[in-house]
TrEMBL record:
<dbReference type="InterPro" id="IPR027417">
    <property type="entry name" value="P-loop_NTPase"/>
</dbReference>
<dbReference type="InterPro" id="IPR003593">
    <property type="entry name" value="AAA+_ATPase"/>
</dbReference>
<dbReference type="GO" id="GO:0016887">
    <property type="term" value="F:ATP hydrolysis activity"/>
</dbReference>
<dbReference type="GO" id="GO:0005524">
    <property type="term" value="F:ATP binding"/>
</dbReference>
<feature type="domain" description="ABC transporter">
    <location>
        <begin position="6"/>
        <end position="234"/>
    </location>
</feature>
<dbReference type="InterPro" id="IPR003439">
    <property type="entry name" value="ABC_transporter-like_ATP-bd"/>
</dbReference>
<dbReference type="Pfam" id="PF00005">
    <property type="entry name" value="ABC_tran"/>
</dbReference>
<protein>
    <submittedName>
        <fullName>ABC transporter ATP-binding protein C20G4.01</fullName>
    </submittedName>
</protein>
<keyword id="KW-0067">ATP-binding</keyword>
<keyword id="KW-0547">Nucleotide-binding</keyword>
Length: 286
């Protein structure tokens, strides 16, 4: 495991003891300096996996081994790990009336001025913004600046580029790729936005309903790739993700035919619901 920045073996996780597993027998190994994209539908377990790797969710360690930089994430928390998720922007603390320059300094920005200033330019941040008076997208930019201005060895990203415009997102991904290549740092990135990502990853992985269907496979696809049996070497990442997500949807529909709770419209119901009866009774629009 010493050659891997991230190493997970035999990970099964339940949100509650009586609930079905959110993650099922996950084995994931990423070499140092790699950049892996995790593809999967909503509910596939991507966020849960990243939160566990970040030490934000405790798991039973019996038979499970979860290491970052060779350190057990629960018993010997490794330094140099940064996790950035979507929940940050909703925290009331970061929605207070504080000026961005003071906010970044309070988080140690003065210690990393060169990286901070480069990120301020990339993310197009106004240091005079007040955190309570800016948009969610602008607040997301501040989050990324504070999270990335300290050099990291392992970066765990959970959908944090969703609020960015296409230009800022492209500049940020270029920065992350250069940073990874220059310092040999590792990135594990869960996203639903695949435009402009084709040149970014060194590996891609596929999760479905808590299982890792395709362990991180090398990207781009080449003759020795685990993906070559399904895709050609010319297939772009967007097309790979689209095919995988279609397969996920078809698989879920098969499970629904076998008794799994269905999604979508309930066309076979002949008895109206209680709410429908109530609202029809007091519907004066006609």
């Amino acid at each position: 495991m010493s050659d891997n920045a991230i190493a997970v073996s035999n990970l099964t996780y339940r949100h509650r003891p009586d609930s079905p597993p959110a993650l099922i027998d996950i084995d994931l190994h990423l070499p140092r300096g790699s950049r892996a994209i995790v593809v999967g539908a909503n509910g596939a377990g991507k966020s849960t996996l990243l939160q566990i790797l970040a030490g934000k969710r405790l798991v039973s360690t019996q038979g499970t081994d979860i290491r970052i930089k060779g350190c057990d994430v629960f018993r010997d928390s490794p330094p140099g790990v940064t996790f950035l998720g979507t929940e940050w922007a909703m925290n009331p603390v970061v929605r207070g009336d504080i000026v961005v320059s003071a906010f970044l300094d309070s988080l140690g920005g003065y210690r990393h001025k060169k990286r901070r200033d480069r990120l301020l330019d990339i993310l197009d941040i106004d240091l005079d913004w007040h955190m309570h008076a800016i948009s969610d997208g602008e607040r997301r930019r501040v989050q990324l600046c504070f999270g990335l201005m300290t050099p990291w060895d392992v970066l765990l990203l959970d959908e944090v580029t969703v609020d960015l415009d296409v230009l800022v997102r492209d500049d940020l991904l270029t920065f992350l790729k250069d940073d990874s290549e220059t310092r040999g740092a590792t990135i594990l990135y869960a996203t639903h936005i695949f435009d402009g990502l084709n040149e970014f990853p060194t590996h891609i992985a596929h999760m479905r309903l808590g299982s890792l269907l395709t362990a991180p496979a090398s990207w781009p696809i080449n003759d020795g790739s685990a993906l070559i049996s399904q895709f050609s070497s010319a297939t772009p990442l967007y097309r790979v993700a689209l095919e995988w997500l279609k397969e996920d949807r078809d698989h879920r529909k098969q499970l629904e035919d076998q008794g799994r709770k269905t999604r979508g419209a309930r066309r076979n119901e002949t008895i109206p619901s209680d709410s429908e009866i109530f609202y029809k009774k007091y519907d004066y629009s006609h």
